[in-house]
Amino acid sequence: MTPKVVVTGLGAVTPLGGDAATTWAGLLAGASGVTALAGPEFADVPVRLAARVTADFASGLPPATLRKLDRYEQMAMVAAREAWQDAGLGDREVPGDRLAVSFSSCVGGILTMLQTWDTMKEKGPRHVSPFTIGKMIPDAAASWIALDLGATAVIETPVAACATGNDAIRRGVELIRCGRADVVVAGGSEAGVHPLILAAFGAMRALCRRNDEPERASRPFDKGRDGFILGEGGAVLVLESAGHAARRGARVYAEVAGVGVNVDGFDFAAPDPDGASKDAVMRQAMDDARLNPEQVTFVNAHAASTPQGDLTESMGIRAALGDRMPIVTAPKASMGHLMGGAGAAEAVITVLALHNRVVPPTVNLENLDDAIVLDVPREPRELPSGPLAALNNSFGLGGHNVVTAFTSR
Predict the structure, then answer these.
(1) 178 catalytic, yes or no?
(2) Of 16-20, 272-276, 277-281, minimum mean pLDDT range
(3) Radius of gyration over alpha carbons of the chain, in Å?
(4) Which of 166, 147, 70, 161 lies closest to 101 in space, CA to CA?
(5) Burial level of 324, CB count in 10 A (0-12/13-18/19+)?
(6) Would you call 355 a catalytic residue per the annotation?
(7) Cα–Cα distance measured from residue 265 to residue 24, given in angstroms and rounded to the nearest whole number
(8) What's the pTM?
(9) How many C-beta neighbours within 10 Å does residue 3 have?
(10) Which among 287, 313, 319 is positioned nearest to 300, based on CA atoms?
């Protein structure tokens, strides 16, 4: 029998806070993690907005460890340790050959790469750190987590653009279902707020340009949306087989009941215009979870605040869930787009929404786009008693689509 997969631990480092609880509280309060970029290095960049992590999240890591880690790896380590502790797991409690890591990033240590290149140009190759490669490659964060927690079963490092974090969760679920692991530490992180990245996305006309009102800039589903806000952060979920969790008496937040994955096959940057692939991947996740559309309580939308992306996702949601008006929330309005960390951070939010029976608000939604027919709460929305189900959507450049379906009782 295929084992059920449950969530027993959560960790997060986001622009709203240095841990999962602070992030959740900020989201419920309608806070914004988006700020103006005032440094001289950003003076010539047309987009001077980003959602940065301001919390002193890495203070608990030893200096000798910090110097070996890029910022994206530091976030990964801190979130993983928080999730591990939240799951009530002790040091080496899980045998290494039954513990896996599924964690990745879109671009890895891009800040290390760019800073090291500057150092090399200025001072020469002898001044390049021996830690550079380990701080740069996208799979390194997963390796550091595995070393820290003693995982020896499998390391998975899927890269699926902006769907990376959610895809890592999907892969983690599959590792447990196929019997390769009892526990998987799954998620993603990103730290790429740099003038080059802003200039590159700006050249694609993908970014919001409301430089004068950062807190109100990201506005998913709003008529005035004009692009996403580049963010940084990361999150981790501890996934366990239901049997393993029950044997140790673990608290269970929710079940990862289903997963879906497909590709648009339309264009590298533009989404499938009719939302058909989004419809299909949500149906796939629901089928895997054995959910009917009417059983889905809410959707955590990818909704990055781009004109076409939000519209096609809304079309996919309506097609997948039928004529009833589904509740939809869009956390990127508050914390920007965490890129490789987005799907994982939003999975944490989805699980906490189910666990606490409340859907967080979508801020900055002043005028819902007439073409978008969804129920998007502007205030926290209490959920009813009884079984609940939610979909967590993540879509990425290149046509990546990943959906995870969570349930709770």
Answers:
(1) no
(2) 272-276
(3) 20
(4) 147
(5) exposed
(6) no
(7) 35
(8) 0.97
(9) 16
(10) 313
**Residue 186 and residue 241: Cα distance in Å, rounded?**
13
Which DSSP string corresponds to 22-90?
Answer: HHHHHHHTT---EEE--SGGGTT-S--EEE---S-TTTTS-HHHHTT--HHHHHHHHHHHHHHHHTT--
DSSP label of 270:
S
Q: How far is CA 65 from CA 113, 127, 184, in A?
A: 18, 20, 23
Please give the angle made by the CA atoms of 38, 44 and 46, to the nearest 5 degrees. Answer: 85
Residue 1 is predicted with a pLDDT of 85
In the annotation, is 302 catalytic? yes
3 state SS of 21? helix
Q: Pick the catalytic residue: 194, 244, 337, 400?
A: 337
Could you tell me which of 349, 147, 121, 360 has the C-alpha nearest to residue 253?
A: 349
259-408 CATH pick, 2.70.170.10, 3.30.460.10, 3.40.47.10, 3.50.50.60: 3.40.47.10
Distance CA 292, CA 315 (A): 18
206: pLDDT strictly greater than 90: yes
Looking at the DSSP bridge assignments, the partners of residue 328 are: 299
Query: Do the domains at 5-247 and 259-408 have one common CATH topology?
Result: yes
CB 297, CB 406: distance < 8 Å: no
Query: Which residue is catalytic, options 162, 194, 208, 355?
Result: 162
Question: Of 106, 194, 208, 302, which one is the catalytic site residue?
Answer: 302
What are the sequence ranges of the domains in the chain? 5-247, 259-408
Tokens of 164: 């990376």
Report the CATH fold assignment for 5-247. Peroxisomal Thiolase; Chain A, domain 1 (3.40.47)
**Of the candidates 365, 382, 396, the residue with the CA atom closest to the CA atom of residue 166:** 396
Residues 6+ apart with CB under 8 A from 354: 253, 254, 297, 383, 388, 390, 406, 407, 408
pLDDT in tens, 35-76: 999 999 999 999 999 999 999 999 999 999 999 999 999 999
